[in-house]
């Protein structure tokens, strides 16, 4: 069927400036630029990944949204009309990548942080030690010591703890969804910054064997690459129940992406679909979840914290409480703006709840039930900047998880075409010629720079708050105020409106 | 090593086993087992464990090498994500056995519950095998991505298998000794007749199986088998538009 869909973008080439080096042609992995006497774009194929514009030595390329205007209709937006055309031409579920782009409220941007003035002095982070360190894992109700004077030791047996030098870890992104070079960069950066990366559900490539103390390994319904060795060579084992971008929807790596190397890592034949449906099918209750948690603990001799990752959904607080009672050491909550390699648009854009509200509700519930100490809370689903991290910790999180932000640091342009496997930046692709574009060392440097910058920024805020450790901020909702939020939202977030004092 | 499991919680019991395996112990006999979970879970050595009594769920989960013999019935989640080894059950078993199993053998004398071999996978020479002598419940071989499952129906109960056989199947092969009515089948499977090669393949496993349980191989092989394979390795390939 001939498509009636207009091009999304227009590639403008300034032929005066162009020196016909053809770099743009070589760089475009979506075949949107050809050379026929001169640089000739096929606008329809452009996804605005900016690869050509970035590498054009003459800055001769700009990309604009197709200025084709639609007859105004607030209800029938151009996007909705284009989606209908797409489906009328194909009969398929619309697939997309990255996180929810729709203009839902972003509550981070409606929360403001306190600072010290006059009566309670702030602290200069340049001179004072400012601690960003935190530990993930279950904490005891109380601790007991034994011995006397200079021979005192801890009597209480501690659950396994994993130290983070900065309260930001890299999100679960599978080898398959992203490239091996991207995985390597994340692992190297995690090691250097004293934080963690997460394999996602696609197993662990053998090249990353030396980084296992910095890696969260995931167990999802498909069990790809899961062996007792995989479980034991890890910092943390995570059971994946859900993902913020697609709550209730599983993973599905199409067969064409399952090449030799992925086949080996996932331990499935080349070319078969890697199906990881949302239900685990051995988990229909909290008791069943507990059974898997303890199977993993038995298989790792109780040496690894076990995390359970869920999407933020309406009943998240009760579910999280169940997860903690089931024996999880960490609850990872992924908000509805979280990214993905591929998800049906209807799910990505319409299912789940914002992480800010989910976090506040979960932290509240666990406190009310007196079990907050039993598990650390990790939150993700569009943590965009260090301010979001500070606000999340003040709301009650132990640490934050960044996926999209880490990809952007490596070069991602959020073009949302991850599911095509043509990522021009060598991130969401398995094509060797594209994967090569991402240099793991350089990408790791960029990731480290990002975390270093965020670390300094968090220290600045801690100083202005008059505290010297990120652990002192945890759950300090009194240090947050809401702006422009209705009372009900403020109640859920457990914060006062700006203008209200103590 | 002999362990009296009476009144013993799974946690200390499995710890005794793990520590003994680490110390070089090769053989275990567990008496009076009554529902203790995770026996053999995560063990990587080729030890032998004989269980007298009914073990609990997740027997041999993530297991990589041991041989387990159960002289009774067993419960749910046997051989969950098992990589290598052997589990022989002289009785019936519960649901979701062989979940994500990737290698080794699971031989059951009697019936099996729902979702036998769900997400079973294979990789090159590592091909997991499940054989059950009786009947099985719904969703037999669900999402099966590799490996071999044989169902024998030796106790003559009917139907031999429940509904939705092979739903989501996209790899591997199943052999069922008897006729499977089409309405029991999932949308993703294809029914075939067996050829000589198939008979040879199942014959080699069934010989071993019959030796464990004292069945007559000729009698087993004389039944008429149905072979089930996936229609596609990519069952959901055409569902999406970009
Ligand atoms: S990269 Fe720039 S200068 Fe080179 S051919 Fe393309 S438009 Fe012209
Ligand atoms: S990872 Fe690549 S394909 Fe995905 S949004 Fe970023 S640049 Fe685009």
Compose a concise summary of this entry.
The complex is a heterodimer of chains A (502) and B (242). With 502 residues, chain A is of the alpha/beta class. Chain A contains 16 helices and 23 strands.
What does this structure look like?
The complex is a heterodimer of chains A (502) and B (242). Chain A is of the alpha/beta class and 502 residues long. Chain A has two domains: 84 residues, 2-Layer Sandwich (Alpha-Beta Plaits); 334 residues, Aldolase class I (TIM Barrel, Alpha-Beta Barrel). Chain A has an eight-stranded parallel beta sheet. A three-stranded mixed beta sheet of chain A has the order 6-22-23, covered by helices on one side. Chain A has a two-stranded antiparallel ribbon with strand order 1-4. In chain A, strand 8 and strand 9 form a beta hairpin. In chain A, helix 4 packs across helix 14, helix 8 crosses helix 10 and helix 11 packs across helix 14. Chain A is globular and about 85 Å long. Chain A starts with 8 loop residues before the first strand and ends in a 5-residue tail after the last strand. The relative contact order of chain A is 0.15. With 242 residues, chain B is an alpha/beta fold. Chain B has a single domain, classed as Pectate Lyase C-like (3 Solenoid). Chain B has three helices and twelve strands, in the order E-H-E-E-E-E-E-E-E-E-E-H-H-E-E. Chain B has an eleven-stranded mixed beta sheet, covered by helices on one side. The longest helix of chain B has 18 residues. Chain B is globular. The termini of chain B are far apart. The interface between A and B is large, with 45 and 51 residues. Strand 5 of chain A pairs parallel with strand 12 of chain B, so a sheet runs across the interface. One iron/sulfur cluster binds next to loops of chain A.
């Amino acid at each position: 069927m001939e498509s009636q869909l207009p091009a999304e973008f227009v590639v403008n080439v300034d032929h005066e400036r162009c020196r016909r080096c053809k770099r743009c042609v070589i760089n475009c992995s979506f075949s949107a630029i050809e050379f026929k006497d001169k640089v000739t774009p096929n606008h329809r194929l452009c996804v605005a990944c900016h690869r050509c514009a970035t590498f054009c030595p003459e800055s001769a390329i700009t990309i604009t949204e197709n200025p084709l205007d639609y007859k105004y209709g607030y209800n029938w937006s151009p996007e909705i009309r284009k989606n209908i055309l797409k489906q009328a031409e194909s009969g398929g579920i619309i697939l997309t990548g990255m996180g929810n782009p729709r203009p839902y409220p972003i509550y981070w941007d409606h929360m403001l942080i306190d600072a010290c003035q006059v009566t309670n002095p702030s602290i200069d982070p340049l001179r004072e030690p400012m601690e960003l360190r935190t530990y993930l894992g279950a904490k005891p109700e109380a601790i007991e010591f034994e011995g006397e004077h200079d021979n005192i030791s801890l009597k209480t047996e501690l659950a396994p703890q994993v130290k983070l030098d900065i309260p930001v870890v890299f999100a679960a992104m599978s080898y398959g969804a992203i490239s091996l070079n991207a995985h390597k960069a994340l692992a190297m950066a995690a090691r250097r910054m004293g934080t963690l990366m997460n394999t996602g559900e696609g197993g662990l490539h053998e090249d990353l064997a030396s980084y296992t103390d910095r890696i969260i390994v995931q167990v999802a319904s498909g069990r790809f690459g899961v062996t007792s060795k995989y479980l034991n060579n890890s910092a943390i084992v995570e059971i994946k129940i859900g993902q913020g971008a697609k709550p209730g929807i599983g993973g599905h790596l199409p067969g064409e992406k399952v090449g030799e190397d992925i086949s080996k890592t996932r331990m499935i034949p080349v070319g078969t679909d890697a199906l990881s449906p949302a239900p685990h099918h051995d988990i229909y209750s909290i008791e069943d979840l507990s059974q898997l948690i303890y199977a993993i603990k038995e298989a790792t001799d109780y040496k690894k914290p076990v995390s359970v990752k869920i999407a933020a959904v309406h009943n998240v607080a009760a579910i999280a409480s169940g997860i903690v009672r089931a024996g999880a050491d960490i609850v990872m909550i992924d908000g509805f703006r979280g990214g993905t390699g591929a998800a049906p648009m209807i799910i990505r854009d319409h299912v789940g709840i914002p992480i800010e509200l989910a976090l506040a509700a979960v932290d509240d519930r666990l406190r009310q039930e007196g079990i907050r100490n039993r598990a650390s809370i990790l939150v993700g689903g569009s943590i965009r900047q260090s301010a979001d991290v500070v606000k999340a910790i003040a709301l009650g999180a132990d640490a934050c998880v960044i996926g999209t932000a880490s990809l952007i640091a490596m070069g991602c342009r959020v073009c949302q075409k991850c599911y095509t496997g043509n990522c021009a930046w060598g991130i969401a692709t398995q094509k060797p010629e594209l994967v090569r574009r991402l240099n793991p060392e350089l990408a790791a440097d960029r990731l480290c720079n990002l975390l270093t910058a965020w670390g300094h920024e968090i220290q600045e805020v801690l100083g202005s708050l008059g505290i010297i450790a990120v652990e002192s901020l945890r759950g300090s909702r009194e240090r947050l105020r809401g702006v422009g939020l209705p009372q009900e939202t403020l109640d859920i977030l457990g914060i006062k409106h700006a203008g209200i004092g103590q | 090593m002999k362990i009296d499991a009476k009144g013993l919680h799974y946690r200390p019991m499995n710890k005794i086993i793990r520590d003994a395996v680490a110390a070089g112990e090769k053989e275990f006999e567990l008496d009076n087992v009554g529902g203790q979970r995770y026996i053999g879970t995560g063990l990587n050595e080729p030890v032998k464990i004989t269980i007298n009594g009914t073990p609990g769920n997740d027997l041999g989960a993530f297991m990589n090498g041991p041989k387990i013999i159960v002289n009774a019935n067993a419960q749910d989640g046997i051989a969950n994500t098992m990589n290598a080894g052997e589990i022989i059950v002289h009785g019936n078993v519960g649901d979701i056995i062989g979940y994500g199993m990737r290698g080794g053998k699971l031989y059951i004398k009697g019936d099996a519950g729902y979702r036998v071999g769900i997400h079973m996978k294979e990789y090159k020479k590592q091909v997991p095998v499940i054989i059950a002598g009786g009947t099985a419940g719904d969703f037999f071989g669900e999402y099966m991505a590799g490996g071999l499952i044989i169902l024998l129906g030796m106790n003559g109960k009917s139907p031999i298998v429940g509904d939705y056989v092979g739903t989501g199947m996209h790899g591997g092969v199943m052999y069922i000794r008897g006729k499977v009515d089409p309405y029991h089948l999932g949308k993703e499977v294809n029914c075939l007749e067996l050829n000589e090669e198939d008979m040879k393949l199942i014959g080699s496993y069934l010989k071993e199986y019959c030796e464990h349980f004292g069945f007559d191989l000729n009698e087993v092989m004389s039944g008429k088998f149905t072979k089930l394979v996936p229609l596609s390795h990519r069952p959901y390939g055409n569902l999406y538009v970009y």
